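Design job #97: recover the sequence.
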């Protein structure tokens, strides 16, 4: 069963709010660091389309903002999948991801089974985090 439009827009709002919080957080950190180019970068992310966010975040990632940058990247990806109509489908097996799971974790790319398998195989292969 596809995700009802009402639930979908709730999830969208949830992610957009989260993105706002993350950007505020990054802005604050960069203000403290007194690095104008980084503050500028955050400004660009704020205005960027979801498509171009990834490349901007690669720069952020390089300056040890891994957690926020990764979450922002996940949000951009999820919003993009909403627009292309693939949101809520598991990346690996194509099954619809449980709505309750999406409510807790709106940027989920995989169903629980595939996510577990994915994490297992990743932790066995290497420990390098991938964006
Ligand atoms: Zn799956």
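Job complete. Output follows.
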């Amino acid at each position: 069963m596809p995700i009802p439009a009402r639930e979908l827009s709730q999830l969208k709002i949830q992610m957009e709010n989260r993105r706002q919080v993350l950007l505020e957080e990054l802005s604050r950190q960069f203000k403290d660091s007194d690095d104008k180019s980084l503050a500028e970068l955050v400004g660009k992310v704020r205005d960027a389309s979801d498509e171009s966010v990834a490349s901007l975040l690669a720069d952020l990632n390089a300056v040890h903002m891994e957690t926020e940058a990764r979450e922002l990247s996940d949000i951009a990806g999820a919003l993009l999948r909403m627009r292309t109509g693939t949101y809520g489908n598991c990346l690996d097996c194509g099954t619809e991801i449980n709505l309750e799971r999406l409510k807790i974790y709106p940027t989920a790319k995989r169903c629980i089974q595939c996510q577990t398998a994915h994490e297992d195989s990743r932790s066995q292969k290497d420990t390098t985090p991938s964006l």
